[in-house]
Structure formats: C-alpha cells, structure tokens
C-alpha cells in the first residue's frame, strides 16, 4: 500500500502584466524576422490554497517532456510571480515546488499558434492539511517498459520476512518458476540471472533466486541480453539470452548476509547448504556450498547449453566442429540432474567483483567445483510405424554415472578514456565423467511375434578440457553515433574418452522361437578429439541522419579439428589390441570462413526498425588420415534479418522480427563416420545433399495498466524450412533399418508456437486472477520404406491462475488447466496418439500463533490413454511442512517436511518423432520425511536489518 497526494489547482487565462497589444507586436515581430526561431513565454503566480498568500522563492522548473531534461529554471518573486522567456517550440512539463507543499505538475506545448502559456494563479496545497483532510489510496506501478527491457518494482508486490528472490519473482505477471527453480518468461527459458548487471556465479540462475533476499532488491529487469558487441553498436547480431537482472538497493550494498541449512530425513535422505555474501564499497564477495541427495540443489542447468554440444555442430555462420558425442552415445552425459535417477551432489563456488579507479576498471571472477553421482533405471515402449504394419519395441535400462567439474571464468574491463574501452573474458572448464549402462531391448510385430532382441552394456571414462579467451575493443569516434568495435575470440577444446561396448543382437523369423542370425560387438573405444578456432568480427557504425544509421561488419574465422576414434577388438589373449578399421577413423578438418554484412537501423520517437543481411563464405576440407582421402566443400550462407518495435507508451509495446538462415548438411549426413553403437540401424552418407533454408518469424505484444494491475501479453513464432533435409529409412520385417538423409523438394517443414497471458486484480475479493493459453505444432517429414510420412505433434493448453495474500495470515497461489496433445503419423492409420491431459499446481502457507507456519504444495498430472498407448498415466505429488520461527527477525527456523506424501512420484515422458510414438518411465526421488534447521543472518548498513 502506498499513500499518494495530488495538489488541486486553478487555471486562469487572463494575461497578467501583459497587454493584448504587446502580444500582437511580439507575434508580428517573430513572423517578420526570417532568421528568428519560434519561442514562447510561460508565466503565472504561486500562491497558498487557503489564504492565497504569495509563496516567494518557490521553485519553478521547465522540463522537456520526452526525457525530463531540465530546460529552464527560476524562482518566484516576492509577489509569487514567475516568468520563463525564450521557450522554444515543443512539449514540456512545468514543475512548481515549495517546502511542505504538494508539487504542481502540468504538461503543455509551445507552437506557432500558442506562444504564451499563462497559468494565472497556481494554488499549492499544504501537505499537512492535505493529509489530515483526505486520504487517497493509490496503486504503485508494478512494471514498466524501458526500450527492450521490462522492469518490475518489488515494492508493488508482497514480500514476507526472509523471503528469497525466487518468492518475489513468482508473483511477477507472465513469469513462472517450476519446482526446480527453472524460470520461464514470455514463453522462453531464462538462462541468466545477473546481480547489478554483473555475472553472479556465471551460468547458475538458482544461486541468485534461491539465496538472495527479496527485501534487498530495488528492481528486477527482464530483457534479451545481447552480445557485448551488439550492446555497444545497438544492432542485433542474433546472439540473445533471456535474462533477469536483479538490482540491489544502495543501502544493502554495505555489510554481509548469508544462510546456513542442515537437514536429515528418512530413507537416508539429507541436505546441507551454506551461502555467504559480503559487500563493502565497490567490492562484492560471495561463496556457497551444497550437498545432498534430494535433487533440490543449485545445479547449473544452463551448463549443457554452453558445453553440451551435438555431433558435428554447425554454427549460424557455417562453421562445423567435432565433438565427442557422435560415435558413442554414452559419451553424451553432461552431468545435469533432470529428475531421472537418484542424485548425490556436492558442489560449491566463490565469486568476487570490484570496481576501482573511478569505476574505470572492473573485474568479475567466478569459480565453481561440483561432483554429481546418478543411479537409476528407465523403461521405454515405442511403436515404430511402417507403411502397412508396426513394430513394437520395449527397453529396460540401468545406469550409474559420475561427473566432477571445475569451472573458472574471469572478466576484466578498462575504460582507457571516454571513447575507448577494452573488455577481456577468459573461461576454462575441466570435467571428468564416467558412466556404465546395461540395456535389454526387444522388438515384436503386431501379433506379438519376436523380431529382434538386444543385450548391451557400455562403460566410458571421459576427460574434457575447454578454454576460451575473448577480447572486445570499442571506440567512439568524433561524430556522434560513429563507432568502431573489434571482437577477437580464441577457443580450444580437448576431449579424451576410453570405454567398452559389448552388445549382442539376435534376429528372428516370425513364428520361430530361435534366432536365425546374430550380430555381436565386443570392443574397446578410444577417442581423442581436438578443436582450435579463431574468430574475429569488425563492426563499423555510421550515422546517416539523426534517425538512420548503417552498420557494416566483416568477420574472418579459421579453425582446425582433429578426431581420432579407434575401435579395438579382443585378441586371443584377452587384450583389446586388434584395430577394427571399419569402425575406426582419424579425420582432420580445416575451415576458413569470411563473413560480411550490412544492417540499416532506424530509430525515431517510439519506433525502432532495422533490416539487412549477412553473407558468409565457408571453405572446408576434411582429410581421412587412415584412408588417405579428402572431402572438400565450399558454400555460401545467407542470413537476412528484419526487426520492428513500437513502444506505444511506457507500459505497452509491440515487436516483430524475421531471421533467415541457410542450413548446410552436416558431415554426418554427407559422409557419416561408421557407428556400431546401434546394431539395429545403419546410416549411409549422401554427398549430393543440398542446403535447406530456415525462416523464423516472431512477434510479441505486452501491455500493463497500473490502476487495475492488469496485464496482457501475447507472443508467438512461425518457422518454415524450405528444401528440408529429412531421413529416408528402409526397415525390414525383423526391425533392421538402413537410413540416409535426402532433400524434400516440394514441401516445407513447419512449426509454430503461440502463448498468451491475461491477468488483473479482482478488487471485490482482493485476489489476483489470470488465464493463459498456449498452442504449439510441429509438422515434420521422413520417408519410411519409400513412402512419404508426415508426423504431426501439437499441444494445446489452457490454465487458470489464482493468488491471494493476506499479510501475516496466509498466502495462496494455484495454476491448473487441461491440455490436448496430437501425435500421429500419416503412414499408418493405427499411429494416432491424440489424447487429453490435465496439469495443476498449488502452493499455500498459513501463519499461526507463536510463530508457527504450515505450508503445502502439490502437482497433479494426468495423461489419458490413446490409440497407441492404451494405459493412462496419473500422479499427484504432494508436499507439506510445518515450521517454527525464532528470534525477533524470524531468521532462525526449525521445520519438518514431508516430500511426495502419497508416494506417487514416477518419472514420465511421451513423444512422437519420424512416425515413432514413444513413452518413457524412470526412477526418481520419492517419499521421504526430513527435519531441517535454517538460519538466515545479516548485518547491512552498520546494523541488523529490520523486517517490516
């Protein structure tokens, strides 16, 4: 709640101390003087509302409306009169202030038709008298739009004592946080959370949201973070990260705060967490440590986006590089806990940042170390649709995994002078992982006859090293808007792995119970993969007018990759030292990329519009060392882009964008490396593949009304790929497949998503209510036994959100609604997997006497049966806790928590791809009870923080 006051005033139009004749003479003089500039006069008297006495020395300010810059200033004379002369044509704000009186604010314009603005008497209201006679209850603006940034004001939301940033963000319209702390905003995942614009432990958002206190926050900003070079030049380079920036209050930047938490429970579950933060001057120091097996830990789910790469990754500019994931699927584990299995986690880190030399120099350092162990099992069922029949596959898998990771990143920035800035980024990753898996797979036909049987075990040890260094030099030239920037990047990656693959595949003739053929693999796999790359990007901006600018760029990239993969068979004495030449290879890849581009950028008033394109010429050569053969390819990538944004007002904006990209075929599609990881599928290369062209259209609209706390947001995208590269699969009646990639000439692969949210405060019951609608659809193609198959995957959902907060009594929020899923393949009428579902979440806390609090939350999921999946799935995960708080600030607490009280937590997933319908279930954390002690401590600004 916030108390506001507004001064009443009167406007009189009779001129004071001026005659109509003088005004006419002034206008005549201006109109007859060709070199003269249009200017006007603003005048009036400042008086008291009750006795109309003059308020001498009252402050009179004239501000420019569009940016509130002070244009003119004066003070009222002894009789209260003021006059501002030579006011140029334009739109202005008049601000009149006097001690202990409410301010007078008014907007007006000066133009050729109105050169004199006479306010007559401006009666100011005494604040004390105003507040004693009338109370005006107003709403605080919860959010506003600043350019591309959506800014939230924490003072407009309810904050409990010792609440964390996560509890605050949950209340923001259009933002959702799941049970693992993953943040979704405007339909996209937030992958970075900054503190005062700086990296805070790098890429782990949960370390901010789950540990920083909400009462320390001044504002929270949501935006698409651009690359440093794009932020400097003002032109979009396509590198965007959905980001939250938490800005702290100034008085909370001096002192320290932290948290200690220990818990032990049934079924051998435990958790421990420590967090410490210290602020002094421009310095910030933070450290944390986490251990436990509950799954509720601050693991960086953004790491896999940065380091977890697919085989033969192709970048937007056409670059291709080796990774260690292509030949052996068991190399692909990136050490993340996504709910599958039972985790044991030990992780910690330290952060430091500082500014000095009048903020001309700054440093930001983050170091993290972590260890995670996972164990569990997974069960899969799959329907593989053929033109006239289907193959049913079942699989049971057990796994053990372990990963240890050390990660360091450092940023140093120096402002050499007012026009020249140098920024240096260095980061390194050292990761060791090992895994072992055992799988049994079985395939049957529609009558239940066995077609194939696979037993497979894999073990693997991987050692990864990554090092990157980036330098950005920016220079502002003499002419305003003319800039030059140079970005240089050197990267090096090395991955070594050593593992064993042992598999036995048996194939059956229908109605025969013994196999008629067998494939056996017993090999040691040793991989050594290296990549070294250098990238440069030079950007020059030239202002063509006040509103239009041109951005030119040139990039030069070179890289070298080496991939040495060896497969060894077992010799007679039991050693794995017989090289298998078919499944061994040693490739070297050299690339040279030249990129040029031109972008026009138009900014005027409320409109931002940019358009242009980039072109990259790629020349690469792949050399097969074992076979002494080379493969060369040259191609050009075309990347057009258009962006339009219109800001109607501070809390309403509209944005559209288009991006196009040429997608070149990967090396795996053109000339695949032989892979015997899956004996049921053999991949052939196709050197005649043509590139495809991917088009992406995106749009969004957002508005917010302060008085009714009403928001409306809609966003969507549409993608279509021309000449897409699709798979062509030939499968025999025993489930053996041979596949090859081909172009689809006469159809486009398409996809879209649409997301909308509307909400407001229902004042009659003091409750926030909102509705959300979302729809997504993917249409993909592939050939199955020479017949074109179309696979459709669609999801439609509706959800209702309700929340209510009663200070010191209760807090309640819920979200629930139905979903409808479409998953089918055109090749087989029995492939329809359409079905209804329902999802619901709730959370509530009730404050009781003697500082007791009861809280509970739940998640309900239902997936109905379909034509393919004949069983429905249903689970309700219910958690509850009772907490007792101690001390004056309630910062010490004891709690008893029950997780998954109904013991229904089973991992579940359904999917459809290339005519295959799949469902997976897996082990995950189930019911336990835990006793926890938690202590939040702080000393900020020289004393204990008092909770409101």
Automatic annotation (TrEMBL):
Residue intervals of the Outer membrane protein beta-barrel domain: 475-935
SUPFAM superfamilies cross-referenced by the UniProt entry: Carboxypeptidase regulatory domain-like, Porins
Coiled coil: none
Matches recorded under InterPro entries: CarboxyPept-like_regulatory, OMP_b-brl_3
Region annotation Disordered: where it falls in the sequence: 435-457
Segments traversing the membrane: none
The protein's name: Outer membrane protein beta-barrel domain-containing protein
Organism (species): Flavobacterium nitrogenifigens
């Amino acid at each position: 709640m916030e108390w506001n006051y507004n001064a009443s005033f009167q406007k009189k139009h009779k001129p004071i101390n001026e005659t109509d004749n003088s005004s006419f003479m002034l206008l005549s003089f201006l109109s007859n003087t060709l070199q003269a500039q249009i200017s006007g006069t603003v005048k009036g008297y400042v008086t008291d509302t009750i006795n109309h006495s003059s308020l001498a020395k009252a402050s009179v300010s004239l501000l420019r409306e569009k940016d509130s810059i002070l244009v003119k200033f004066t003070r009222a004379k002894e009789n209260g009169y003021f006059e501002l002369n030579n006011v140029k044509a334009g739109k202005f704000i008049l601000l009149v202030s006097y001690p202990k009186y409410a301010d007078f604010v008014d907007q007006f314009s000066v133009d050729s038709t109105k050169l004199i603005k006479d306010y007559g008497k401006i009666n100011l209201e005494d604040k004390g008298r105003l507040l004693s006679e009338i109370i005006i209850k107003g709403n605080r603006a919860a959010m506003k739009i600043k350019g591309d940034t959506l800014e939230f004001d924490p003072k407009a939301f309810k904050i409990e004592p010792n609440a964390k940033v996560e509890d605050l963000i949950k209340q923001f319209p259009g933002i959702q946080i799941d049970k693992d702390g993953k943040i979704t905003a405007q339909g996209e995942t937030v992958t970075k959370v900054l503190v005062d614009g700086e990296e805070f432990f790098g890429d782990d958002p949960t370390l901010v949201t789950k540990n920083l206190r909400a009462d320390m926050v001044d504002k929270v900003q949501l935006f698409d973070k651009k690359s440093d070079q794009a932020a400097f030049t003002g032109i979009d380079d396509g590198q965007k990260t959905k980001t939250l920036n938490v800005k702290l209050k100034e008085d909370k930047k001096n002192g320290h705060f932290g948290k200690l938490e220990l818990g032990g429970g049934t079924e051998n579950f435990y958790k421990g967490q420590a967090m410490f933060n210290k602020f002094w001057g421009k310095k910030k120091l933070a450290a944390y440590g986490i251990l436990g097996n509950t799954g509720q830990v601050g693991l960086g789910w953004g790491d896999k986006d940065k380091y977890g790469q697919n085989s033969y990754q192709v970048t937007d500019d056409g670059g291709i590089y080796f990774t260690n994931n292509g030949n052996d699927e068991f190399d692909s584990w990136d050490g993340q806990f996504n709910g599958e299995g039972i985790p044991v986690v030990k992780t910690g880190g330290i952060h430091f940042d500082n500014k000095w030399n009048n903020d001309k120099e700054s440093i930001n350092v983050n170091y993290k170390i972590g260890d995670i162990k996972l164990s569990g099992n997974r069960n899969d069922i799959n329907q593989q649709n053929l033109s006239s029949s289907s193959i049913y596959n079942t699989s049971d898998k057990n796994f053990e995994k372990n990963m240890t990771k050390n990660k360091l990143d450092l940023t140093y920035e120096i402002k050499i002078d007012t026009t020249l800035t140098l920024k240096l980024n260095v980061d390194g990753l050292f990761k060791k992982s090992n895994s072992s898996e055992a799988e049994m797979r079985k395939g049957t036909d529609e009558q239940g006859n066995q077609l194939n049987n696979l037993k497979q075990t894999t073990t693997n040890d991987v050692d990864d090293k990554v090092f990157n260094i980036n330098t950005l030099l920016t220079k502002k030239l003499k002419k305003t808007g003319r800039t030059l920037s140079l970005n240089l990047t050197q990267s090096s990656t090395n991955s070594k792995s050593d593992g064993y693959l042992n598999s036995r595949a048996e194939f059956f003739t229908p109605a025969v119970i013994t196999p008629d053929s067998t494939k056996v693999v017993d090999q040691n796999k040793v991989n050594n993969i290296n990549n070294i790359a250098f990238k440069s990007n030079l950007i020059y901006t030239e202002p063509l007018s006040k509103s239009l600018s041109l951005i030119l760029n040139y990039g030069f990239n070179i890289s070298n990759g080496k991939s040495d993969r060896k497969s060894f068979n077992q010799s007679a004495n039991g050693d794995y030292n017989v090289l298998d030449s078919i499944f061994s290879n040693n490739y070297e890849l050299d690339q040279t990329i030249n990129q040029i581009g031109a972008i026009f950028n138009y900014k005027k008033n409320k409109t931002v519009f940019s358009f242009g394109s980039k072109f990259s010429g790629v020349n690469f050569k792949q050399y097969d060392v074992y076979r002494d053969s080379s493969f060369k390819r040259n191609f050009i990538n075309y990347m057009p882009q258009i962006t339009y944004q219109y800001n109607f007002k501070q809390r309403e904006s509209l944005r559209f964008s288009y991006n196009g990209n040429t997608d070149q075929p990967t090396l795996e599609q053109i000339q695949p490396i032989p892979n015997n990881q899956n004996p049921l599928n053999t991949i052939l290369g196709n050197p005649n593949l043509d590139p495809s062209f991917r088009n992406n259209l995106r749009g969004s609209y957002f508005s917010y009304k302060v008085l009714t706390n009403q928001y409306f947001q809609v966003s969507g995208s549409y993608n279509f790929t021309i000449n897409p590269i699709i798979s062509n699969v030939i499968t025999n009646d025993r489930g053996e497949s041979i596949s090859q990639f081909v172009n689809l000439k006469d159809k486009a692969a398409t996809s879209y998503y649409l997301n909308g949210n509307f909400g407001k405060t229902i004042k009659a019951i003091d409750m926030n209510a909102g509705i959300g609608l979302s729809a997504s659809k993917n249409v993909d193609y592939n050939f199955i036994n020479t017949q074109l198959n179309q696979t459709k995957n669609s999801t439609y959902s509706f959800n209702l959100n309700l929340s209510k907060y009663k200070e010191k009594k209760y807090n309640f929020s819920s979200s629930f609604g139905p979903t409808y899923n479409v998953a089918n393949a055109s090749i087989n009428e029995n492939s329809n997997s359409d079905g209804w579902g329902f999802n619901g979440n709730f959370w509530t806390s009730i404050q009781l006497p003697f500082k007791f609090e009861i809280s509970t939350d739940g998640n309900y999921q239902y997936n109905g049966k379909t034509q393919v999946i004949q069983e429905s799935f249903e689970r309700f995960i219910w958690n509850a806790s009772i907490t007792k708080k101690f001390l004056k600030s309630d910062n010490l607490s004891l709690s008893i928590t029950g997780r998954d009280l109904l013991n229904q937590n089973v991992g579940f997933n359904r999917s459809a791809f290339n005519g295959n319908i799949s469902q997976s279930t897996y082990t995950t954390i189930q019911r336990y009870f835990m006793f926890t002690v938690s202590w939040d401590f702080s000393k900020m600004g020289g004393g204990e923080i008092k909770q409101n």
